[in-house]
Amino acid sequence: MSDESSGPTTSPTVETLGLFVATFALQVLLLSVLGPAALGLFALGPDVVIQPWTLVTSVYAHAGPGHLLSNAIVLMLVGFPLERSTSRVRFHTYFLVTGALAGLAEVFVGGIALGIVAGVGLAVYQLLNTITFGLFGALVGLLNGLTGGLIGSVVAPILGIAGIKQVIGASGAVFALLGYAVSGNRLTGGVLSRLGLGATGQIVVFAVLALVVTILTGSPGVALVGHFAGLFMGLIAGRLGVLDPDEADTGGRIDAR
Questions:
Q1: Which value, in Å, is the radius of gyration of the alpha carbons in the chain?
Q2: Which secondary-structure segment (H or E) carries 172?
Q3: Using an 8 Å Cβ cutoff, are 84 and 250 in contact?
Q4: Which site among 33, 115, 250, 253 is 20 to 30 Å from 45 CA-CA?
Q5: What are 26-74's pLDDT values in tens digits?
Q6: Mean predicted confidence (pLDDT) in 112-132
Q7: What is the CATH number of domain 3-240?
Q8: Cβ atoms within 10 A of the Cβ of 197, count?
Q9: 148 and 119 in contact (C-beta within 8 Å)?
C-alpha cells in the first residue's frame, strides 16, 4: 500500500467529504445572493450541454444538510475500507465518473419514464372526457400515452403535470462505492463461482439486486434511477476490479473475485 492512500491527510474519503462541505458552503452563499436560481448552477439537467460543469458540481452538491449528512455517513462506512486498497486518483476518478453517469441516467432515463407516466395520464384524462374532446381527442391522448417518452415529456411540463428533471447529490456515486464493496470481494466471488454463473448470469443477478435495493431504499423525491444506475455500475465494477491499482500505483490489490 502506498503512502498516497495511507495517511489521513491524503485520504480520498476525507477529501471527498471536504468537497461536499465546500460545495455546500458555496451553494448557501450563492443562494443568499441569487435566491433559488442558484440551484440551477449546481444541478444536472437536460441543459447539460449548455452547463457542462454541472456534471461535476451535481455530484458534490446537496439539496440540504440532511441530504449531505446521509451521503457522508455511507461514504465514510464504505469509502475508508475501499481506499486502503486503491490509489487516490482511482478513487476520485471512480467517484466522479460513476456519480456523473448515474446523474445522466436519472435525468434522461428517469425523464423519459416520467414522460411516459405523464403521457398515460393525459390519455386517461382525455378518454374520460371523450364527450368534450371527441373520439379523436381520446385517440390522440392514447397516442400520447404510448409515446409518452417523446411526446408526454414535452407536453406534460407545459400542462404542469411534470417538471424539468434535475438531479443533485452524491447518492449515485455512493451507491457505486457500495456496489463495489459488495461484489469486489472474495466471498462474493466464491458464491458466484459456486453458482456457475457466466458473465450474462452475473449481470442479471446484479440488475435484480440493484432493482430490489433501489425499491427498498426508495422514498418520495429520491433519484431512483440514479441510485439503481450507481449500484448496478458498482456491482459490475467490483467484479472487474476497476479500483485495483496498477503496480505503478501501489502494488496492492483488493481481495476480489
A1: 21
A2: helix 171-183
A3: no
A4: 33
A5: 999 999 998 888 888 999 999 889 999 999 999 999 999 999 999 999 9
A6: 51
A7: 1.20.1540.10
A8: 14
A9: yes
Cell numbers standing for residue 47: 441543459
Q: Could you tell me the pTM of the whole model? A: 0.73
Phi and psi of 23, rounded to 5°? -65, -40
User: Cα separation of 224 and 229, whole Å?
Assistant: 9
Residues linked to residue 44 through DSSP beta bridges, in sequence order:
167
Calculate the alpha carbon distances from 240 to 79, 179, 188 in Å. Answer: 18, 12, 13
Q: Which residues pair with 167 in a beta bridge?
A: 44
Tell which residue, 170, 182, 241, has the closest CA to residue 206: 182
Taking alpha carbons only, the member of 257, 255, 250 closest to residue 90 is 250
C-alpha cell at 26: 458555496
* Domain residue extents for the chain: 3-240
